[in-house]
Design a protein that fits this description.
The protein has 14 helices and 27 strands. By secondary structure, the protein is of the alpha/beta class. Among the domains are: 85 residues, Immunoglobulins (Immunoglobulin-like, Sandwich); 96 residues, Immunoglobulin-like. β14, α5 and β15 form a beta-alpha-beta unit. The longest helix is centred in the middle third of the chain and has 17 residues. It is elongated. The relative contact order is 0.08.
């Protein structure tokens, strides 16, 4: 742990050639071979610390190579663990120049409390048909659509090189190499550049809780050494190697492995100019069994690595949003390192989506627990509303363990039913008005159906078919971002329940930042399939409260009831409202009439 970091590990291109350096501490000799020397073996020199190095004159970007590692009588042909490009997982490493032209890119993401996250899977987001795989170029073609919708942060599912031509991305073999079928490293950088030009930040999902696994994993027993027939130098070689995805947990206590991961963080944030990272399943980095409070299986080296990752990331980019998927509700994930925490900016909130699915996909209104919604909305980490990412659908909820999108669960096989549309809008309205950073799963805004998987083509025809639902999301996102200066409270810290009626299935809550005109926001939600007329609700203060959004408006769908009001005049503390079935009203005040 006290060792200094090794410089220029991997293949580094220079004007007159390429320097190669690889870590193989148990090798008896190492050579590099490639198309630059007609696949002859160029011997590398031991640096007496486990690393081997050499320089190949006139080697150029685009040429292929491998390391040839000898351990006793064994000869192993291995790809570069830090290769920036591979032909295929079982193919060769490819030399890449680090000379991408970023132009005048100076993107600074908006503050966390103003971010609207869109979770996106490159392979399925926008592609020609089911026989092809999506690319960064095809995502670029949709960036104007996302910008118009109001999205200002894209969270990409993992893009590292995979063993198969399809996948969610969580079985990455090479954490430095961008999947070539998506467009490779330059295609990815061009995507980031184009997103930045539209004011959209890019956060990437990275996987450090395991690597691979697959039968051809190059890192497995990389230099021929292992113990207990485990994974060798990059992995734990005892009981700590075990994960739900195979015995490929990196050895977080080994300095060279820590550098391997930390240098990867540096590459994404510095070289690729990402605006943040989302770490997959951090609970399996800090505990062998994925348990929140079980010291017997804790990994102290994993915890210290998480702290090192957040510390490094924020040194590189102080604006970076660092998201943990820990699924434990542990406040120490988002506490600062100085207070003993892991130092993440925010973490995925798993309680709220579970509650939303349970409440909104219930067939009978009597089975909907408004108290459960209220409790889930009231949850904070360390007193900070924005230390949690809130959502109703994600790749996990819509794809794992037989899960499906909320729209599908509401009306199986009939997502164009009025119930699916109205109750899906309730979910989106809650996400956009709840304390937290809102996130949507690709296609959620146009009623994509079924479950999430790595082969189903996202049906962009639905964006036209459900144009009104897309418009409703656009309107709500504008309110959430306080575009019109009327709803500052939605980017504020504060939340309180104004009214909760389990019999009528109605909930009203108050959001505010500093409070006052143009700040205070009241959200009223009818979870029942009946119109509520002359219903009395308390408000934060007297005066005129304008309805900024009514989800029952016919402009969103011609079969909606169009029940509602334009404004409420509050004389003291309460006023009478009218709200449609399965509908949401968002209200605020224009200005102080006495000003």
């Amino acid at each position: 742990m006290s060792k200094s970091n090794k410089k220029e590990v991997g293949a580094i291109t220079h004007n007159n050639g390429v320097s190669f350096r690889v870590w193989a501490p148990f090798a008896s000799s190492v050579a590099v071979t490639g198309s630059f020397n007609n696949w002859a073996h160029a011997e590398m020199v031991s640096e007496n610390d486990g690393y081997w190095a050499t320089f190949i004159d006139n080697a150029q970007p685009g040429q292929e190579y491998k390391f040839v590692i000898h351990n006793g009588d064994s000869e192993l042909y291995k790809n570069d663990p830090r290769s920036l490009q591979v032909t295929t997982t079982n193919g060769n490493s490819v030399l890449v120049a680090n000379d991408f032209d970023w132009g005048d890119d100076t993107h600074i993401p908006v503050p966390f409390n103003e971010q609207i996250i869109y979770e996106l899977h490159v392979g399925t987001f926008s592609r020609v048909d089911a026989s092809t795989i999506g690319t960064f170029d095809q995502v670029i073609d949709k960036l104007d659509y996302l910008s118009d919708l109001g999205i200002n942060t894209i969270e990409l599912m993992p893009i590292g090189s995979m063993s198969k031509d399809r996948g969610w991305g969580y079985a990455t073999d090479y954490i430095y190499a961008v999947e070539s079928l998506y467009g490779g490293r330059n295609g990815f950088m061009e995507f980031v550049k184009q997103a930045h030009l539209r004011g959209i930040g890019v956060t990437l999902d990275v996987v450090y809780n395991h690597i691979g696994p697959d039968d051809g994993l190059d890192l497995w027993q990389y230099d021929g050494w292992s113990e207990n027939d485990k994974g060798g130098i990059y992995f734990y070689n005892d009981w700590r190697s075990e994960t739900p995805w195979g015995e490929t947990r990196p050895d977080y206590g080994r300095h060279e492995v820590r550098q391997y991961i930390l240098d990867n963080v540096r590459m994404w944030l510095k070289d690729c100019r990402l605006d943040g990272l989302r770490l997959d399943s951090t609970i399996y980095i800090r505990n062998v069994k994925g348990l929140n409070d079980n010291p017997d299986t804790d990994l102290p080296d994993g915890w210290s690595l998480l702290q090192a990752i957040t510390n490094l990331a924020l040194r590189i980019n102080p604006y970076a949003m660092l998201i943990a998927e820990d699924v434990s509700g542990n406040e120490y994930i988002t506490k600062p390192k100085a207070d003993g925490g892991a130092g993440f900016s925010t973490q995925w909130e798993v309680n709220l989506p579970s509650v939303l699915h349970g409440v909104l996909d219930a067939v009978n209104d009597s089975d909907r627990s408004i108290t459960a919604i209220s409790n889930a909305l009231s949850r904070y980490y360390n007193g900070d509303a924005f230390q949690r990412v809130v959502y109703s659908d994600s790749h996990d909820t819509a794809g794992n363990d037989g899960g499906a999108r909320l729209s599908e669960e509401i009306s199986p096989g009939k997502v164009d039913s009025v119930f699916a549309r109205k109750r899906s809008l309730i979910a989106s309205a809650i996400i956009l008005t709840a304390p937290g950073i809102p996130m949507f799963l690709q296609g959620q805004e146009f009623m994509e159906n079924g479950n999430f998987n790595d082969w189903k083509v996202l049906d962009w025809h639905k964006a036209k078919k459900f144009a009104g639902i897309v418009l409703a999301h656009k309107h709500m996102i504008a309110l959430r971002r306080n575009v019109y200066g009327q709803t500052r409270g939605l980017v504020g810290q504060n939340f309180t329940v104004l009214h909760l009626n389990e019999d009528a299935k109605l909930l009203a809550y108050h959001r505010w930042d500093q409070g006052g005109y143009g700040d205070d926001v009241v959200v009223i939600i009818n979870f029942a399939n009946q119109i509520q007329k002359d219903y009395v609700v308390n408000f934060p203060r007297p005066g005129i409260w304008q309805v900024r959004f009514n989800s029952d408006w016919k402009g969103y769908s011609q079969d909606f009831k169009d029940v509602g009001i334009d404004k409420v005049d509050i004389n003291e503390v309460s006023g009478s409202i009218e709200i449609g079935p399965y509908a949401v009203l968002i209200l605020s005040q224009d200005k102080n009439p006495e000003a």
